Amino acid sequence: MDPISPLEQALHAARSLVLADLVAGEVAAADVVSLVEESVVQRRWWVEQWPEGAGYVAGLVAQDVQDALLEKHGRWPLCPVCGSGDPHALDVEPELGPDPHWVCHKVGVKVASVGSLGSAAGGGPSS
């Protein structure tokens, strides 16, 4: 059995982290998971062209899914920090860099690392 390449490891990790956040937000329906898969396919080409960017894939997949969800379903993920005012989405920072995390720009706080929204919102969905 061949070892998994660093590129594939980065793509699998990105998929896993974004899926964890979707599950935490209870929005991991089949059509939404398909958006993750579409992003991973596109980002595979991107990281093949720029292997040094493998550490940035998780943030890019999160942003891709967020953009696709905005077009099809609405804002995601909604900010769990701000309890009043209009609901607003979190943003991924850095836009292109390692260690991506979700931030609320309204109050200027880091909410959670990509893949850890469940802990920021007080745990994952109840079963």
How would you describe this structure in keywords?
127 residues, 4 helices, 9% strand, three-stranded antiparallel beta sheet, 46% helix, mainly alpha, globular
Structural summary, described in words:
With 127 residues, this protein is mainly alpha-helical. The chain is 46% helix and 9% strand. It contains four helices and three strands, in the order αααβββα. It has helices spanning 6-24, 30-49, 57-72, 117-120; strands at 91-93, 101-104, 109-113. Strands 1-2-3 form a three-stranded antiparallel beta sheet. A hairpin with a 7-residue loop joins strand 1 and strand 2. Helix 1 packs antiparallel against helix 2, helix 1 (6-24) crosses helix 3 (57-72) and helix 2 (30-49) crosses helix 3. The longest helix is centred in the first third of the chain and has 20 residues, at 30-49. It starts with 5 loop residues before the first helix and ends in a 7-residue tail after the last helix.
